[in-house]
Amino acid sequence: MTRAPKHTKSSPRESGAMQGWAALTWSDLDRWAGSRSVSRGRAYQRQGRVKDLRVSEDGRLLATVTGGSRYVVIVERPTKEGKSGSLRSRCTCPVGADACKHAVATVAAFLQALSDGVSIPPADADDPRWSASAGKRAVASFEDFDADEDDSNSDAQPRGGGTRRTRAEWDKLIQQHVQAKSATELAEMVCALIERFPELRDEFQEQIALSEGDIDRLVRRTRRELRDVTADAGWRNSWTGDGQTPDFTRLRRRLEQLFDLGRHDEIVSLGRELLKRGTQQVEASDDEGDTASALGECLPVVFKAVACSKLSPTQRILFAIDAELEDPYDLIGEAAGAVLDAEWSPADWSAVADELASRLKRAAPSGDDGFTHHYRRDRISNWLLQALEHAGRARECLPILEAEARLTGSFERLVRHLIAEQRYSEAERWAREGIDKTCQKLPGIAASLTETLCELARARKDWNTVAAHAAVEFFASPDVQSFRELLDCSKKARCEEKVRAAALGYLENGKPPIRVAAGKPARKPEVAADWPLPVPEYLVPLMARETAGSGTGRPHLHVLIDIAIAEKRTDDVLHWYDRMQAAEGAASRSFGRYSGASYSDRVADAVGKSHPERALEIYQQSLNGELTHADLAAYEAAGVTLRKIRPVLQALGRPGEWPQLLADIRLRHRNRPRFMDVLDKLEDRPIVESSRSAARRGR
Q: Is residue 100 classed as helix, strand or coil in its secondary structure?
């Protein structure tokens, strides 16, 4: 148990324990807790959420912070140098262990008090919060707080002077108290408790019924519990943390009792109802899957019962398959493995396959959309294919795959099967047909089949075809990665220089060397005379679709900048950047607001060593744009830009301009306290000093 040292007459402020606190900077707190926790903790401090702040003689902080609940926080003092690595904290919030936002808020409140010259009261050694901090939960009151059961060495004193006992100590005392009772006294005590707690009455009634062999009563009560627990949807308010999750614990226990009693068939009947009602309940719930997880804990015993039931082997397997087919929320998880992974004979699986094949024949399109019908049919046929494999009838799979591909568009499954059997020419033929049939309505499938054809070409080292695929990808979505992939493939196809020139020309003027007019059916492509790669026929429909969805004739100057940066051609970086600036005007300069997404910053970073004057000019331009916005994102972006400006000024032999620049910015924007915090971090000022400066600005 952590206890504060006894308070003496000397002040901790005078004892030297405060030196480490006074040296802390915002950068120290960032390294300790992370910028997100620091930002949220600072907001808590500003909102006045830190209550009853106290400081011990050795400089530890003790406080209560109000968040979703009330939390106790203890923060150990840093070293005299204020190093972040020496900070330690404990909190009763869910994070608990170290460096949460509540701990940051406590530190910020204490440092604000130091800078304001406000005296913090000394911590009392008997403050119950020293004990509360050893727990891992929020407490609304600390007056009656008992230490956790692991805290067996507690000697803290509660209010009123009695001894505070641990959980283990209470358990021992309760056991001794019960053992000291006579049989009559115990009977009276139990009867009184039964009257007070209905759950105990239910438990005793079940035990009596079971002892009398009344199993049907347990089945009836289990069914009633099933209907009660699935009657209400779960919910959770993500803002307040309030909500409810149905408690399936008692239902699971009753199902396990029935299983132990060998009532497997009753469990199967209950399981059917649970799956139906539970699915409806999960559909109506809004609690991020908590209800689904709770319900799912009941299902392993259901499927164990199915595996032991009087159902025929075929019916058992079909029970599990049907449950999987009707499970849109993955409630079952691995529970069905108790049935599906069991040892069934090929004859059992053959009967399952015949039933599924019959269902597939009867599965006519319903009133829903085509996608839903195809999805359901594909799931049934997937199980049919597995059943045929287990039954030793794998030869029957290919005709089913071929028929279903044309019915539902499941060409990928068919092509994978043919490749697994090393029937490559058939796989290519079906992939081409699949691309033609799906490129308009199911472009994702067409793209996947195209990738498969590319991999087949790569496997046989047909580099011309592989490079043709890479060209289609590049012209559809030009970037550095697709450019490099195109060059790599064209090098293997021995036409790298021509392809590179055509690709760069396309990026500059927006005119690709291969053009396919939009429309259906796709027309024959127009190919530039100097384009060295073939255009596979099956790619034409995809190229026509890409052409219909994109604007042609538009330069891609940003990609040219990226390529020049990657290839470290700084003169070209500036050339294309200037072209972009001229083409986009003020719009391009607006990039500077958010560091990391800014071409201005990326260009300046790339040319900082070779062209420092231009880099400084671009950084200044970005900084001016950032300073026009009064929000935290702009302040953080400005801080990043200022940090980059400093080494450039040093490289130019003008280091004195950087502090002057900061001073000018502080003066112009002194009414933006959050921006001042960013600048304080930039200069690594102690927080106490920064707060005093802020107070002087306020006066």
A: coil
Nearest CA to 272 out of 210, 216, 226 is that of 226
Amino acid at 184: T
User: If we measure between CA atoms, which residue out of 29, 42, 39 comes closest to residue 98?
Assistant: 29
Measured CA to CA in angstroms, residue 636 lies from 35, 594, 674, 676, 681 at distances of: 11, 8, 10, 11, 10
Determine the length of the chain: 699
| DSSP letter (8 states) at residue 686 | B
Q: How many CB atoms lie within 10 A of CB 138?
A: 16
- Which tokens in the block code for residue 449? 């089949």
pLDDT in tens, 418-456: 999 999 999 999 999 999 999 888 889 999 999 999 999
Main-chain dihedrals φ then ψ at residue 689, nearest 5 degrees: -65, -40
* Cβ atoms of 358 and 377 closer than 8 Å: no
- DSSP track, 503-564: HHHHHHH---SEE--SSSSPPPPEE-TT--S---GGGHHHHHHHHHHS-SS---HHHHHHHH
Which of the 8 DSSP states describes residue 462?
-
Q: What H or E segment, with its residue span, contains residue 235? A: strand 235-236
| Helix, coil or strand: residue 51 | strand
Question: In degrees rounded to 5, what are phi and psi of residue 66?
Answer: -90, 125
Mean pLDDT of 323-340: 95
Side-chain half-sphere exposure of 149, counting CA atoms within 13 A: 5
Alpha-carbon torsion (524, 528, 534, 539), positive or negative: negative
Four-CA torsion 604, 568, 559, 484, nearest 10 degrees: -150
- For residues 21 and 80, give the distance between their C-alpha atoms in angstroms, rounded to a whole number: 7
pLDDT digits (tens, 9 = 90+) for 213-227: 778 888 999 999 999
Other CB atoms within 10 Å distance of the CB of residue 236:
18
Q: Which of 403, 328, 423 is nearest to 363 (CA)?
A: 403
**How far is 29 from 496, CA to CA, in rounded Å?**
52
Q: For residue 563, how many other CB atoms are within 10 A of its CB?
A: 22
Strands 50-55 and 61-66: antiparallel
DSSP alpha helix (H) spans, 330-442: 337-340, 346-362, 370-390, 397-408, 411-420, 424-438
Q: Residue 221: which H helix or E strand, with range?
A: helix 215-229
Q: CA 695 from chain center: how many Å? A: 41
Is 268:320 a contact under the CB 8 Å cutoff? no
C-alpha to C-alpha distance for 543 and 549, rounded to whole angstroms: 10
Q: Quickly count helices (H) and strands (E) in the chain.
A: 35, 8
Residue written as tokens 């804990």?
297
Name the DSSP class of 142.
Answer: S
CA–CA gap between residue 550 and residue 106 (Å, rounded): 54
Q: What are phi and psi of 302, to 5 degrees?
A: -65, -45
0.85 surpassed by pTM: no
